[in-house]
Amino acid sequence: MSMLLGIDPGTATSGYGLISDDSNEIKLIDYGVITTQPNLPMEKRLLLIHNRILELIDLYQPESCAIEKLFFQRNVTTAIQVGQARGVILLALAERNVNYAEYTPLEVKQAVTGYGVANKKQVQIMVQALLNLEKIPTPDDAADALAIAICHAHSKKIKDLNSIG
């Protein structure tokens, strides 16, 4: 059984989701968000995100991590801030020697719903179904992080099968 960490990066809110994956079943371990206050200086917000990711890694010891790839956004300021959050998250992963993979939103939607242009609600419903949860995980950033972790689990299985053949 392997523990996988999914992360949906952001400076105001970074979602995280931990799942275990054995050959037959994906199970929920934990999920939530790391939030920072907008009145904090950016360097303090980034330090908080970095330290919280380190705490999660130390607590759960994930085998690997999946993080959403930064895609071009119309709002350049938002894209830069997300890039900064991704940077401190990748630094934390490197500090703890955790391998990671990156997935685009389209790849995550395809892996979770089978449809690359699924809407947010469709992805959330599939996360709920795949993890056998009573309700859709909230907030959205946490549900997105779980979807990223599920995508990584599916992708790892395909890579493992391809390495056998």
Indicate the topology.
Blueprint: E1 2-8, E2 13-21, E3 26-35, H1 42-60, E4 64-68, H2 76-95, E5 99-103, H3 105-113, H4 120-130, H5 140-164
Parallel strand pairs: 1-4, 4-5
Antiparallel strand pairs: 1-2, 2-3
Helix pairs in contact: 1-2, 3-5, 4-5
Strand-and-helix sequence, N→C?
EEEHEHEHHH
Distance between the termini: 22 Å
Quote the average pLDDT: 91
- CATH homologous superfamily placement: Ribonuclease H-like superfamily/Ribonuclease H
Q: Tell me the domain tally.
A: 1
Number of helices: 5
Per DSSP E runs of 2 or more residues, the count of β-strands stands at 5
The coarse overall form would be globular
Q: What is the top-level CATH class?
A: Alpha Beta
Low-confidence stretches: none
How much helicity do the residues have? 40-55%
Radius of gyration: 15 Å
State the strand order across the main sheet: 3-2-1-4-5
Q: Main sheet? A: 5 strands, mixed
Looking at the chains present, what oligomeric state does this protein adopt? single chain
- What is the CATH architecture annotation? 2-Layer Sandwich
CATH topology: Nucleotidyltransferase, domain 5
Q: Assign the structural class, choosing from mainly alpha, mainly beta, alpha/beta, alpha+beta, or little secondary structure.
A: alpha/beta
Provide structural commentary.
With 165 residues, this protein is of the alpha/beta class. It has one domain (2-164): 2-Layer Sandwich (Nucleotidyltransferase, domain 5). Helices cover 51% and strands 22% of the residues. It has 5 helices and 5 strands, in the order E-E-E-H-E-H-E-H-H-H. The chain has a 5-stranded mixed β-sheet with strand order 3-2-1-4-5. Strand 2 and strand 3 form a beta hairpin. The longest helix has 25 residues, at 140-164. The model has no long low-confidence stretch (mean pLDDT 91).
